[in-house]
Amino acid sequence: MASAVPPAASTQPNLPSGIAVLRTIPYAFILPEIFCGTWVWILVAATTVSNPLEQGWVMYVSLSSCLLSLLLLVGYIIGFHKNSENWKVMDSLYHGATAILYLSAAALQANATIEASRTDTVIHYHLNCAATLFAFITTFLYILHAFRIYYQ
């Protein structure tokens, strides 16, 4: 008589590889994170830096996060993770920490925008506004990715 016990569920995380990364949530957030983070970097670089310490931190966070996210995306695409549970934990920790860093950078960029409204030209003020908007959007994307990978 056949047993009515269902087969045991696999405990492997089933992480995507190749082009499937771009079609699977939350991994599909990596490309918009890179895109929006790059815009933060470009827009801050295009303005006159009114407060070098604040906007230097924004530049550091945006540039380093873009590069690390790009490396993570390449790692997923080539299948470097080998479906390891540790890779999933590392991904969640990276995106959570980066979300916190980006939130601090977005707040500092918002402060730099307020200061720029008093002293800079209209075009530099608008560039700072756009950089602030993209910084908060990028922060939101990193938060979404961190929570979605954690609760997956």
UniProtKB/TrEMBL annotation:
Membrane topology: Multi-pass membrane protein
Principal subcellular localization: membrane
Keywords, in A-Z order: Membrane, Transmembrane, Transmembrane helix
InterPro entries per the UniProt record, alphabetical: MAL, Marvel, MARVEL-CKLF_proteins
Transmembrane segment boundaries: 25-45, 57-80, 92-110, 122-144
A GO biological process held by the record: myelination
One of the record's GO molecular function terms: structural constituent of myelin sheath
Highest taxon listed in the record's lineage: Eukaryota
Compartment(s) where it occurs, according to its Swiss-Prot or TrEMBL record: Membrane
Domain MARVEL: 21-152
This protein's GO CC annotations: membrane
Protein name, entry field: MALL protein
Organism: Todus mexicanus (Puerto Rican tody)
